[in-house]
Specification:
This protein is an alpha+beta fold. About 15% of the residues lie in helices and about 30% in strands.
């Protein structure tokens, strides 16, 4: 098909399945994938490895992302500490998770991998800190967590 616009003929059997083009993030290679959802299966083309095939199938069935952001800290050497979900959460839960974490506040000192939220946005996935944060000079640590969501 020369000069193809990306649409394919379905041979007169109804609507042609949609093909999504995505970049695989399973490894540093970043293969450009073409993922086609058929009536009872998913075809993945362009992957250099099995991980790419699994990534392509998962991306169309249940897209998930690891959320990284910051949470406010009272009495620390910095005003915020970086946090992340321990595992990927459903993509449609990212905005509710961010809204929940915006309300969370920690009190210094903060330990690395300290649990900030046990189950963010109802996903069952905890959010943890990704670095320690000591108490600022001249500040007395009056209790470890100020508020916990």
């Amino acid at each position: 098909m020369s000069g193809s616009s990306g649409s394919q003929s379905d041979g007169g059997q109804g609507v042609a399945p949609a093909t999504r083009e995505i970049i695989c993030t399973s490894c540093p290679r970043g293969c450009p994938l073409q993922v086609r959802v058929l009536q009872d299966s998913v075809e993945v083309h362009g992957s250099a490895c099995r991980r790419g095939v699994a990534y392509g199938r998962a991306e169309v069935a249940d897209p998930r992302r690891v959320l990284t952001t910051t949470v406010g800290v009272e009495g620390g050497t910095l005003p915020v500490v970086p946090v992340r979900t321990l595992t990927a959460i459903p993509k449609d839960r990212l905005i509710p998770a961010l809204a929940e974490l915006r309300k969370a506040r920690l009190r210094a000192p903060v330990r690395m991998h300290e649990v900030v939220v046990d189950s963010v946005a109802g996903t069952g996935v905890p959010v943890v800190t990704t670095r320690p944060l000591p108490v600022a000079a001249g500040v007395v640590a009056a209790g470890h967590l100020a508020e916990r969501s």
